[in-house]
Design a protein that fits this description.
Layout: E1 17-21, H1 26-37, E2 41-48, E3 57-58, E4 61-62, H2 66-79, E5 83-87, H3 89-105, H4 112-131, E6 136-138, E7 143-146, E8 149-152, H5 161-164, H6 169-172, E9 175-176, H7 184-193, H8 215-223, E10 228-232, E11 237-241, E12 266-271, E13 276-280, E14 286-296, E15 307-312, E16 319-327, E17 330-340, E18 347-352, E19 359-369
Parallel strand pairs: 1-2, 1-6, 2-5, 6-9, 10-13
Antiparallel strand pairs: 3-4, 7-8, 10-11, 12-13, 14-17, 14-19, 15-16, 15-18, 16-17, 18-19
Helix pairs in contact: 1-2, 1-7, 3-4
């Protein structure tokens, strides 16, 4: 990519009314600027997602502070677009925060960014935007839309197609991702050339509504102490825990199982009914069959036959060659080779085998099993 000054983009054939979601960070600011420069009628909006804004950031962690709102407003002023703040704290708490807590309480490992995109940015916000006469919602996500199909960003390190793969085709039809063709470093340089004060602002990290990054502590305050056993694959009690919700499949650190070889154990499953955390050797984590619920086929018509593709099983995780098929309301995935540490609650995102970048569809992992062993984390498919 070139480091030359920003070249004006030719105006679109038909300018759109675009609502630009502006978080107060550099990505959304440059995305809004690009949309405006392309000739669209752009209005910036900052989503106030916290009932107590000062509580959602510590250093570079989190988001949703008063500072973020002010940064978004200053960016909108620099771009020269109208700016508003929408209070969506109630929706965010209900659809993202409470969902996060209930999923952990049920022994699953959710991805709150995916849920926020699904329920807030491309459901509640898009619905409101369309009702107000807007044609599209623009965000700073690092992903591409090519012919209406979601693709990975050119910046593979920052690619966010995984957390967008829950979107339906009709939602993607009203989405704009102007940053999919540039790297994050180029975004920052462009922000500086445009005179945007957020050019060097640190990215937020981890779960945005857990400012200190202590997920176990956050869940403990919400769910309370719930002591229970940590059980070896042989059935022996090898430790105790204060809450099964503090663990996730594949976890090794923080098990506090004592010395010796028992330390070389990993979480194999979380059983909320019996409040048991089961641990065992790394090889017991291998799974080659995955069931995912709530499938979304965003890359075209739902297939009637099994499809050869690639699957990504966690954000920024590796991809696995597989065969996937729709089975009523479920997505069945068979991996060519076992994957390790696959957690229920995460998304299984399918990518086109030929391109490796086009999203075919997704589902929320509900069960896994090994063809050679007992289920690794959930009931058998």
């Amino acid at each position: 990519m070139s480091n030359s000054p920003v070249t004006p983009t030719p105006p679109p054939a038909r300018p759109l009314r675009v609502l630009a979601a502006m978080s107060g960070g550099v990505d959304s600011a440059v995305a809004a600027a690009r949309a405006a420069e392309a000739g669209h009628d752009v209005v910036g909006v900052h989503l106030a997602l916290s009932k107590n804004p000062s509580s959602y950031r510590t250093g570079a962690r989190g988001c949703c502070t008063v500072e973020d709102s002010r940064d978004a407003r200053r960016a909108a002023d620099a771009i020269g677009i109208p700016f508003y703040v929408w209070d969506m704290a109630e929706e965010f708490d209900r659809d993202v925060v409470r969902d996060f807590v209930s999923e952990y309480a049920a022994g699953r490992t959710p991805n709150p960014c995916l849920r926020c995109n699904e329920k807030i940015k491309f459901a509640a916000v898009l619905d409101r935007a369309v009702a107000l006469g807007f044609d599209a919602v623009c965000t700073g996500h690092h992903a591409r839309l090519l012919g209406g199909v979601l693709h990975r960003s050119v910046d593979t390190a920052k690619d966010q197609s995984y957390v967008l793969a829950v979107l339906r085709p009709d939602q993607l039809a009203r989405a704009m991702f102007p940053l999919g063709d540039v790297t994050k470093d180029e975004v920052r340089r462009e922000a500086a050339r445009r005179g945007l004060a957020v050019a060097d602002k640190p990215d937020s990290h981890d779960v945005c509504f857990i400012a200190d990054g202590d997920t176990a502590g956050f869940l403990g305050r919400r769910l309370g102490s719930a002591p229970g056993p940590v059980v070896d694959a042989s059935g022996e009690v090898v430790g105790r825990h204060d809450g099964a919700y503090a663990y996730t499949v594949g976890q090794r650190r923080g098990l506090n199982l004592g010395g010796g070889t028992v330390d070389r154990r990993y979480v194999l499953s979380i059983e909320p009914v019996s409040n048991t955390v089961r641990v065992g050797p790394a090889e017991a984590l291998d799974v080659d069959e995955i069931t995912a619920e709530r499938p979304v086929w965003s890359g075209g018509p739902a297939p009637s036959e099994p499809v050869r593709c690639q699957v990504q099983l966690r954000a920024h995780g590796e991809v696995h060659p597989c065969t996937a098929r729709l089975d009523g309301g479920l997505l069945r995935i068979r991996l060519d080779a076992p994957a390790r540490g696959v957690a229920a609650g995460q998304a299984a995102v399918l990518y086109d085998e030929a391109t490796g970048t086009a999203v075919l569809g997704s589902g929320t992992i509900s069960a896994t099993r090994s063809a050679r062993a007992e289920p690794a984390s959930s009931p058998a498919m």
